[in-house]
Amino acid sequence: MEQTYFRKGFGLRREIESDLATDYHSRLVDRIRAAGYTLQVEDLTFRLAKEFGFCYGVDRAVEYAYESRRKFPDRRIFLVGEIIHNPHVNEKLESMGIVILRPGDDGRFDFGNVTAEDVVLIPAFGLRVADFALLRDLGCVLVDTTCGSVLNVWKRVERYARDGFTAVVHGKHFHEETKATASQVTKHDEGRYLVVRDMAEAEVLCGFIAGDVSLGRLQELFGHKVSDGFDFERDLQRVGIANQTTMLASESLAIAQRIGEVLGARYGREQVDEHFRTFDTICSATQERQDAILELIEEPIDAMLVIGGYNSSNTNHLAKICAKKVTTYHIADASCIDRNSGAIRFKPVDGQEEIERPGWLSGARILGITAGASTPNNKIGEAIERILTSVGLAIPEE
Predict the structure, then answer these.
(1) Do 262 and 209 touch, CB atoms closer than 8 A?
(2) Known catalytic residue: 201?
(3) Range of the domain at 164
(4) Which residue numbers in the chain have pLDDT < 50?
(5) Looking at the structure, do residues 41 and 114 belong to the same domain, yes or no?
(6) CATH number of the domain residue 134 falls in
(7) Which of 45, 89, 267, 272 is deepest in the core (most CB within 10 A)?
């Protein structure tokens, strides 16, 4: 019988290495890293964060997609949603004949066109339990690129459900990873979840637990972000904390601490373990990139450039961290920098739409750069090249 489930690739790394290098690597970025993360061109200095760009999980997911195309050259290959939140990478996969299945208005996927003869890629974010079961029943080949850090969170969430604790997930309820994580509770009949976006929402939740916020207010805020049949009175007595791995690490930890304090106050510190659980499920790559940017903005920086998809959670959080200290421009791609006029198109922190700003480099002599975990190095290198071209400078020869 043909094997239909793969989580460790196909051992074709050597065969696809040159393709990956061509599509995603940057000699310029390698050079800057080797030079102490600094590039100086006349009076303009670029400082690169010490951790940036593709993390291990993203690198692995992209590699497995390339391996799948090489392994199954004559089969249709579908990808459930975006493999990562980077437009360049997803467009490249589509150019290789991989069909991206987009969710409908209800956020669900239609697998009606998938047959047992097809190959389906599960993205780095993972897949909801029900969708995974449906695809397994179809009998198609599944290539699972779910990130290991995400899997660690899933184990915690499932354990909460098994032990009768409601999983309170710090994340964005519409995000693919959070949907997949929350769905892990459905492996147990009494499993429950609630998704909290930020500290402001956590305070409302805490207010209800403490008896200071009405049931109506809680239903209004969280009614669309809980499991079916959720009972706010019953299901918030025993709580376990988890998180979308790309959220702001400091906020995840603060939310856990706050909820633990309120449950301790309500039930007594000696009984708190019966009502509250938490584990550090922060992704190490997310933490490392956030730590690196905190270190970088302690140096003299005139402006920060953050490169990555606008729908990338970890990239948005990097931009938010930077913006607290220095003027920050979050761009989706190197193409956001006009090499002729020098104008930049960027998404303001907490904004929804791109805006354009000419003369953004005026007076800036030290430019900090970082990139989200789904941004390939070549897009970082291209951005630097475009900036230099826009001010009439060239990369010095090695």
Answers:
(1) yes
(2) no
(3) 149-282
(4) none
(5) no
(6) 3.40.50.11270
(7) 89
